[in-house]
Sequence to fold (217 residues):
Amino acid sequence: MKKIAIYGRGGLGHEVAAAIRNGRVKDSEDWEIIGYFDDRDFSDSHSDRLCGDWLGGIDRLNDWTGPIGVILCFGNPRTRLAVAAKVKNPLVEFPNCIASDYRVSDPASYLIGKGNIIQGGCNVTTNISIGDFNLFNGSVVLGHDVKIGDGNVFMPGCRISGEVSIGDSNLIGAMSFVKQGLRIGSDITLSPLSALLTKPKDGQTYIGNPAKKFRFD
Fold:
């Protein structure tokens, strides 16, 4: 059995742990959840029904003495990449946690990195490239020739059209839409129910249909 730990005792951590424990994740029959890491102090209530026992924070993980797989359960793009960068222990692996009903139309043209979470109902087509530490939070669809970088979060029900390129650390809101052929850079936020029809600027928030840059007063 491969020893697996959840990193982040929150809603996403509970969702992921439940999917693993109930056989809804590929290879989960060979995984054993041994507990969870969290940088908050859970010493007074360390045991969790789904995530198991609190194992400590980042220092404890970096001192771990045996092979361990860690699943980063954070819904914030920057947090996903920041925590991954703090892990220095060479014994730590970041397996992909992929729902058993995930569909890839053309496996021969499909590439995926490490540390990704792909939840139920997601579907990708042909010539797809996915980097590291991305989160597909249920019923996400990628069209043909989509390229995705690292640390992006796709909330439930969003649709990415064909030939879209997405960089790093973006948050794509629930039930949103990205037009075919767009090039998205880094650190943008697309709000729920929005339709992105033009190229966005890095570090900005977009809202509406069509999505417009939001000004924070």
